[in-house]
Amino acid sequence: MLTILGRSGGAGQYCDGVSRRNFIKVGGMTLGTLSLPQLLQAEAAKGEGHRSHKAVINIFLPGGPPHQDMWDLKQDAPSEIRGEFRPIGTSVPGIEICELFPKLAKQMEHCAIIRSVVGAKGPHYSDQCVTGWDARNNEPAGGWPSMGAWVSKLQGPAGNAMPPHVSLMYKTRHTPWGEPGAGGFLGLAHAPFRLMGGKGETSKIDNMVLKDITLERLQDRAGLLKSIDSLQRELDSSGAMDGMDAFTNQALGILTSSKLADAMDLSKEDPAIVERYGTGDSEFRADGAPKMVENLLIARRLVEAGARVVSLNFSRWDWHGGNFKRARQDMPMLDQALAALIQDLVERNLDKDVSVVCWGEFGRTPKINANAGRDHWPRVSTALLACGGMRTGQVIGSTNRLGEYAVDRPIQFQEILATLYHNLGIDLNTVREFDLRGRPQYPVAQGIEPIRELV
């Protein structure tokens, strides 16, 4: 149990001078949707054998970014398909990307572009980018676990002061754009530790650190008190709560350490590095997410502090109108922050251990509509991967002259996730878990392999 001290002195003191009246015992603790004691059950189950620390940063672009205006330009197509942007060369001879990504172009030797991502569905949701599965179809009992949940289950925390599965995804008005995935049939213990709220909500990090906090200070932290269910904890008559006090004590390592809060505090970062990422915009983009480039830096700080999987969402890319105007606003911001993240990983010698993926749920129509926008196009999309010890500096797959469909090396979403699991050191051939009906399930469909060109 957690004991938080109040004022000492007065009658009824213990031998250490602390009043019985000034003890608060906290048993079950939750932040957002995550039970902290449950979070670390996996660590006990796995023991102390996990010393390696590989990580993934998953950057989700909600709404479906236009593949033919980013990393698969079609200069030979008619103007109503080609659009307004021109390609530029990169640090890898023969690879060209959009002129709005000049900083990323200089980091291309650390990147791999996949121009032939297939298997997208029409609706707007993050599922395929965080679980690899279509959660709206043939979902198992308990739901599909996200990539972070599988990693949490299989590898546990890298240390007792940082959750393995962390989300910087903002809650969005269009709810599916702000979903980092859940624990699914693996359980709440492996759900993401959510740090960001929605519009009008504050970050939970402000109410997270209990270190050296007295009873009086704690009582003033209304937000934290709402997150701590200390007085209404009921025993589970089935015995499922047995041993939870031990897990509570471990979980409180997260809250009583400053490690997580420090990772979120950019005032502790070199100002020159912060400036390299650029300045974000905290305004929520309609029903999407803010354009917070700083979160890419925070993601690096989180994995450096011990997180294994960090997800984040950036802006709103559902541009049915004003595609090129919006691109000129958003793409340079993404360019600066993504290039800075890659440079950062390389300079810190993290580029062999930390994988980065940047993608959306589908692509956009080749033909520009009457509102100068592009509509939904599930037939093909694009993704950018970086670092992670992969064979970078290459393009995988291609689309036809109009960017309508893959003509070479179509890549499924699950193949990308299989590659990320591989980078994390997870052997998919040895992994099997059971859903709530006792049916065997796997992180990706059987037969799916990592992308051979990358590994």
UniProtKB/TrEMBL annotation:
PANTHER family cross-referenced by the UniProt entry: BLL7424 PROTEIN, DUF1501 DOMAIN-CONTAINING PROTEIN
Organism: Rosistilla carotiformis
Domain of life: Bacteria
One Pfam family linked to the record: DUF1501
Name of this chain's protein: DUF1501 domain-containing protein
